[in-house]
Amino acid sequence: MGLGTSRLRRNVMTAVMATALAVAGLVTGTITAASAALTCEVTYTTHQWGTGSGGFTAGIAVKTTEPVTSWTLTFTFPGSQQLTQGWSAQWSQSGARVTARGQSSGTGFTIGFNGSWTGSNPPPTDFAVNGVPCKVTLIPSPSPSPSPSPSTTPSPVPLRIVISPSSLTVPEGGTASVQVRLNRQPPGNVIVGTARVAGDRDLAAGPPLTFTPDNWNVPQALAVSAAEDADTANGSATFDSRSSQITGSSAVLWAATEQDNDGSSTPDVPVDNPFRGVTGYVNTDWTANVEGSAMEAGGTAADRIRALKTVSTAVWLDRIAKVSGGAGVTRTLEDHLDAALAQNAGYVTLVLYDLPDKDCWSLVSDAELHYSENGLNRYKTEYINAIAAIAAKPKYQRLRIATIIEPRSLAHLITGRNTVTCDEVAQSGVYVSGIRYALDKLSPLPNVYTYLDAAHSGWVGWETEFAPLADLVTSTVRGSAGGLPSLDGIATNVADYIPTEEIHLPDPYLAISGVQVRATRFFDWNPMFDERDFATAMRSALIAKGFPSSLGTVIDTSRNGWGGPERPASVSTSADVNTYVDLSRLDRRPYRLSPCNQKGAGLGARPAADPVPGVDAYLWIKPPGESDGAGGPLLPPDTDRVVDPMCDPAAQNRYFRSAPTNALPNAPAAADWHHDQFMALVNNAHPAL
């Protein structure tokens, strides 16, 4: 679950559509007789900043009475507005006329854009889809609040400087930049200056930046340069950014590292750990959705949410069109890699998830390819070959490309025994053949790193599954052209919720009133309570079978924080073993195998390299806020109505009938933005935002 096809990204304003008609007036268009079969409604939401001039973000949610697979949306700016950037469509502007083109699979789509304005920013009202005028709901940017009364309103949060990322790499002889903004509107102009306080003197930053009450939240680039030198070291420096206009302590410390170019003209790949010493690619498709949730949340929550827009998340390549382009895709693999270069990112994480007949154990598989329909050949030629050809381009030679290969596929061959679909997959050998081919094509590329998915502790932690999976991983990789050294590592907890560490339950064999804690209802004799123990144990088992000692692991921490008010502060003192476990465990699910849009889950540890021994990185592989699958009681209007019961909040758990699914209600289709889930993840984050 959580591994469904990543469809056309819903824009940031999807979550406001259900209430839009109740909170705003309608501007009604007319439908021509020739187009009477199609009617449409548009919800136009804006968030603007500046006085006299400035910028704005707009979300456009469209509903149609008939399915529209290929659409053209048009409207006219009534003022001086200019389109600056758009997403989830192909955007263009001619004079005041704006056109957005795209494709969808149902009766609705959501898109958005950023723009600039001078004088005023009146909303457009002449929206049309394929030439048919639409009813329009306008949700304007909220007016500034009146000056609060000191006697009734608490003091504002302290004014501070926000810098992202907190560390970056600068090529020797070149420049890079960090983004600087303020956390709230200042009463007057604020000048932010920066000085090097320690480290390599060849690194310098500046000039000072000025923020006004109008542009305080518009990030400005602070240039960082690395002078040419004769040494061969990657020097680093610590910088201090502060402002004398901010009362109290305003200092923000951040770091830069020089990427040396002396002594060798070869790229700094391969390396032992691709995540070490560099920043990850920030997917702007995801951050656009984050911005939409921030706008909807408002207040101080918006600042906390917007801080996440610098976090790196993985790019899911779950169909061929995601690689080379096609229906419903606005950003191809090459587009993402080009964007990573533009950001000066050091690595990008790609999830390869398109094996024929994938997800064989699921009740609802959305496999694009099928073995019986020449799927394996298409997987090789149209998918893997295309990925390898793009990754091998010279312009990406210094970009570290970490691939997460086919989540849960090999585990399905272990746990899916005696199910018809998985038995057919095992007999065809399509999973093993496809993974070997991916390793054959990708592992020889010096800038590509291969991490094969190894499920998670809650699924294959029992010895009856753990050992067979270790054997299957070994035999699969050994059969590739490069053998065991062709694998750089394993990935665990992908798109799941298992805590990295169950801090109050370190010993699964501890006896409470004579009963071991692993024997409780929740753990069901599984001795693997958390992902750190599972990941390092699987790594050790694979090394014992002949894998190089350099084999690494990555753990998906995007949704395993389990913070918030329900997080237990200490171990239980109960003498009843089940009560002891239930009151001590961080994982708050009623049953451990509950994989869909889980209540109570929170953002986990932010992506970081070398977090603990034996782990290359914590990563956000599943982008937080993207739905695991459609769930009731009300289905999304554009869903195909194929719903996994595990996503139904009113259903019982497929794997343990006495427990509910624990799924959040009203979830959209898999990979679409789920604002309610995202807000729950933010509120339950650990570490807290």
Automatic annotation (TrEMBL):
Residues 33-137 form the CBM2 domain. It is an enzyme of class 3 (hydrolase). The keyword Hydrolase applies. Residues 139-158 are annotated as: Disordered. Residues 141-157 have a biased composition (Pro residues). Transmembrane segments: none annotated. The keyword Chaperone does not apply. Belongs to the glycosyl hydrolase family 6. This is Glucanase. It comes from Sphaerisporangium flaviroseum. The lineage of its organism: Bacteria, Bacillati, Actinomycetota, Actinomycetes, Streptosporangiales.
